[in-house]
Amino acid sequence: MHQFKQWGKFILLSLIFPLSAVMTSCVNPELTPHQRRMLTTRTFDANQDLVFRSVMTILQDHQYVIKTSDLKTGLITAEVSKNTGAFVQVMAVTFRTADYISSVQVELSAVVSPLSDQNTEVRINIQEKQFNNKGNLAASKQVLEPAVLETLFNDIRVEIQRKKALN
Questions:
Q1: What is the pTM of this model?
Q2: Which of 112, 123, 111, 107 is nearest to 38 (CA)?
Q3: Could you tell me if residue 157 is inside a domain?
Q4: CATH classification of the domain holding 58
Q5: CA 132/CA 89 separation, integer angstroms
Q6: Residue 33 domain-assigned?
Q7: 3-state SS assignment for residue 91
C-alpha cells in the first residue's frame, strides 16, 4: 500500500508539473503604456523630412503599401495583406472545418515627430488582423515583438545614413 501511495504521488506530480509549465507559458504579462512606448518609439539624429522619407522607403522595402502620408502631421499609414495559402484551405476541407483563417492583414501607422531641427522621433504601431474564409474578422492583435520592431528601426537608421551620404 505504501508503494502505491508513492507511485500515485509520482504520477500526480509528473502530470501537474508539465501542465503548470504550459499554463505559465501561455500567460502573456500585459505591458505597461511606458513599456509599449519604449518598444515602439525611437529617436533619430536627422530632420523630420529626411526621417519621414526614410520611413516611407523602408515600409515599401518591407512590401507595405502606403495608404496615407502627411509630412505636416508626420502620419504614415500602410498595410500588407497575405493569404494563408492552399495548405490551410486543404487542411480545412480535410478536417471539415467550416471556418479557417484565409488571410492576414497587417496595418501599420507611423508618426514622425520633430523634437528639434536635427532630432526626430518615430513611433510605430502594428496591428495584425486575421480574416476567416467568409471575410469576417477572426482575430486582431497589436504586434509588439521586439525583433520585428528592431528590424524596422534598424533599417530606418541605415536608410537615414544612406540618404545623408547622398547629400
A1: 0.73
A2: 123
A3: yes
A4: 3.30.530.20
A5: 11
A6: no
A7: helix
Largest CA distance in the chain: 85
Spatial CA neighbour of 52 closest among 113, 124, 109, 116: 113
Question: In this structure, are strands 75-83 and 41-44 parallel, antiparallel, or unpaired?
Answer: unpaired
Whole-number Å distance between alpha carbons of 108 and 102: 20
> Residue 125 in contact with residue 149, Cβ under 8 Å?
no
**Residue 100 corresponds to which cell in the numbers above?**
479557417
Per-residue model confidence as pLDDT tens digits over 40-89: 999 999 999 999 999 999 999 999 999 999 999 999 999 998 775 555 45
**Within-domain flag for 101:** yes
Q: What is the mean pLDDT of the chain?
A: 81
Separation between Cα atoms, residue 139 and residue 66, nearest integer Å: 23
Sign of CA dihedral 131, 136, 139, 141: positive
- Supply the pLDDT for residue 113: 98
The domain tally of the chain equals 1
- Res. 5: pLDDT tops 60: no
Q: Is residue 121 part of a domain?
A: yes
38 contact partners, CB below 8 Å, separation of at least 6 = none
Write the DSSP symbol of residue 5: H
C-alpha cell at 47: 530632420
